[in-house]
Write a structure and sequence with these properties.
The complex is a heterodimer of chains A (382) and B (224).
Chain A lengths: L1 H16 L6 E4 L8 E6 L11 H5 L20 H8 L9 E4 L3 H4 L4 E5 L49 H11 L8 E6 L2 H16 L4 H27 L7 E4 L8 H4 L2 H22 L6 E4 L1 H10 L56 H18 L3
Helix pairs in contact in A: 3-11, 5-7, 6-7, 7-9
Chain B lengths: L1 H15 L13 E11 L3 E2 L10 E5 L2 E11 L4 E8 L2 E9 L6 E8 L2 E7 L7 E20 H7 L8 E3 L1 E14 L4 E11 L1 E6 L4 E5 L3 E10 L1
Antiparallel strand pairs in B: 1-4, 1-15, 2-14, 3-6, 4-5, 5-8, 6-7, 7-9, 8-9, 9-11, 10-13, 11-12, 12-15, 13-14
The chains are: A alpha/beta (382), B mainly beta (224).
Chain lengths: 382, 224
């Protein structure tokens, strides 16, 4: 009996130890204790520079499907997803305003106002829709409005389009000329240089200019912009004390509905321009342990090729009925993704890549946030 | 703490039941062992299913724990042995496209195994090699995620958790025991388990992993 007892004791112990214990979240603190995130760039990082005046009246401000939770996701812009996952307070626009042309839009302009340290505020997202790398006039700037040319009327909204160069200068001027080691600094621009240079190309060719020369000029201009962005990161960001800098290169703009609609030749030109920008940016950045370059270009191509792996079903159709997603909400979606009932989330939009012809849906931004997060984790910062 | 008291109860049982004059490893005999076991998974995981960054795979690191067995000699050569032990805690690290992220979580497992063994050499030989085979039941539980796991599966969302299935597998082993005296012996064994599992994230993605661990152990035993 004694032997039998030993056997049963062992068996009982084995079964007992197979016990229980729930699956838990574990330590959710990033490996680097960031206290804030400072963002420079364009509409792809803008969290509400123009959420005032005529844009606010339409419920807009993000270049995506506006309204917190409109598609059932917690956040809209990738900088918001990233801030949340780093445990930071949500980013807010460091400067707001609109140079609206009242006679065209029917709403008054809103003076540009800072909300960063210079105004006693804590907003550190300097990214602005329409912003270029260096040139102060980007898409949506009222200076591009021409009463004689209807296609320029969309510029009457009067986006500030403060370029990345000036965004960084503004930050430095308002923060003692320094970045700190507990900041995550993001730089993501170049798209508006593509759009303006494509417009220049089209105008040149339309006026009888040489298409080959015009294309070369467009590609050269993009390489120049890439070199300039790299120089700002090197000499203005890294050299001024930033120790955690993320530069996101330009996604393949030739895959956007905007470029696709221009035909195969237009797409090829846009791709060359995008690659010229990214190559110059990569070449110009001084390698640094304080710098992570995220390859959004490769990721965007893979998303288009292997969309199902990313949970996407549509990588070509804009979900918004408005031409710019800046004023797109759950109420202005195509029937395929419109909410089933008023007040419910447009969850069907979470399988679409594009909100408008160039900007992602909130889900598309989330995919970018995942990509950036992955690179930060590999770097050991998250 | 209960786990510890069970283990110590077993040790006490081993120590107290030492009466009798049986020879080592003969039919009808009961033997217990207590030792240290290291489990080394040889992982090949599938890519994390959609929606996920492509090429995200995982590796599961080795873990060690106290183990114990109880064996019964059916004949002088054939025995049946039950393996139990304290839980193993394995770190989970990212591989493939997430190579370099380091630890993305951890999971506990317990894998009781029953082995039918054949022992070579005469029953009273001091040195008896043996081979064995039998079923393994693996239960995965008590996982922990991480900031990194949440960040690249659901940035800004609720923390991502990891769920593991319970699985059946098959184990084979080779081992040897060396008799010190009438009761005491030392034992070492090498085990190979064939087992697959499916890990599921709270965000919906799954990955199938072939674990096929190799385990090595060393123990001290007592024959009643």
């Amino acid at each position: 009996m004694k032997k039998f007892h030993v056997l049963t004791t062992a068996l009982a112990a084995a079964v007992f130890l197979a016990g229980c214990g729930g699956n838990e979240a574990g330590d959710q603190k990033p490996r680097v204790a960031f206290t804030s995130m400072v963002s420079f760039g364009d509409s792809l990082s803008d969290v509400g520079t123009y959420a005032v005046g005529a844009v606010a009246a339409q419920g807009g401000g993000h270049y995506s499907i506006n309204g917190k939770g409109a598609t059932g996701l917690l956040w809209i812009n990738w900088t918001e997803f990233l801030s949340a996952t780093l445990g930071l307070t949500q980013p807010c626009a460091a400067e707001t305003g609109l140079n609206t042309i009242q006679a065209v839009v029917g709403a008054p302009p809103v003076p540009a106002t800072f909300h960063d340290a210079s105004a006693g505020g804590t907003c550190t997202n300097y990214a602005q829709g329409g912003a270029r790398v260096t040139n102060p006039v980007g898409p949506g700037n009222a200076l591009l409005f021409n009463a004689a040319v209807p296609s320029t009327y969309s510029n009457a909204i009067g986006q500030l389009t403060v370029p990345v160069q000036t965004q960084i200068a503004n930050y430095l001027a308002h923060n003692g000329g320094k970045f700190t080691s507990d900041q995550l600094v993001t730089v993501f621009a170049g798209g508006n240089d593509v759009f303006i240079n494509v417009a220049t190309f089209q105008a040149t060719v339309g006026a009888g200019g040489d298409p080959t020369a015009a294309a070369t000029a467009a590609v050269t201009a993009m390489a120049q912009a890439g070199t300039e962005e790299a120089a700002y990161v090197n000499s203005q960001v890294l050299a001024n004390g930033a120790t955690h800098v993320v530069v996101v290169n330009l996604p393949d703009v030739s895959l956007t509905p905007f470029a696709v609609s221009s035909g195969a030749q237009g797409q090829a030109l846009v791709k060359s321009m995008t690659q010229a920008f990214n190559s110059a940016l990569q070449a110009g950045l001084t390698p640094s342990a304080n710098l992570v370059v995220v390859d959004a270009f490769t990721a965007s191509e893979d998303q288009a090729t292997n969309k199902l792996q990313y949970g996407l079903t549509d990588v070509s159709t804009p979900t918004c009925t408005s031409s710019s997603s800046l004023v797109c909400t759950a109420n202005t979606l195509i029937p395929a993704v419109a909410p089933a009932a008023s007040g419910t989330a447009a969850t069907a939009a979470n399988t679409y890549e594009y909100a408008d012809s160039v900007h992602p849906t909130p889900y598309g931004y989330r995919l970018l946030a995942e990509l950036v997060s992955e690179q930060l984790a590999i770097k050991g910062w998250l | 703490m209960k786990k510890h008291s069970i283990a110590s109860a077993l040790v006490a049982t081993v120590a107290l039941c030492g009466a009798g004059a049986a020879q080592a490893q003969v039919a009808g005999q009961v033997m217990v062992k207590l030792g240290w076991n290291k489990i080394m998974p040889k992982v090949r995981s599938t890519e994390l299913s959609a929606p996920a960054l492509p090429g995200s795979t995982i590796d599961i690191k080795s873990a060690s724990a106290l183990f114990f067995t109880a064996a019964y000699m059916i004949t002088d050569d054939i025995s049946v042995e039950v393996l139990g032990g304290l839980p193993y805690k394995h770190d989970i690290i990212g591989t493939g496209s997430v190579q370099g992220v380091g630890k993305i979580g951890s999971i506990h497992q317990i894998s009781p195994t029953v082995l039918l063994q054949y022992r070579f050499m005469p029953a009273d030989a001091p040195f008896r090699p043996y081979i064995g085979a039998g079923p393994t039941f693996a239960k995965f539980y008590g996982s922990r995620g991480s900031a990194a796991l949440t960040a690249f599966t659901n940035p800004g969302g609720p923390p991502t958790t990891i769920g593991g299935d319970t699985e059946w597998g098959a184990t084979t082993e080779v081992g040897m025991s060396y008799k010190i005296d009438k009761h005491w012996f030392v034992d070492a064994a090498l085990l190979k388990t064939f087992i697959n599992t499916k890990a599921q994230l709270s965000t919906g993605q799954t990955t199938k992993a072939r674990l096929n661990p190799v385990a090595i152990n060393a123990s001290i035993g007592y024959a009643f």
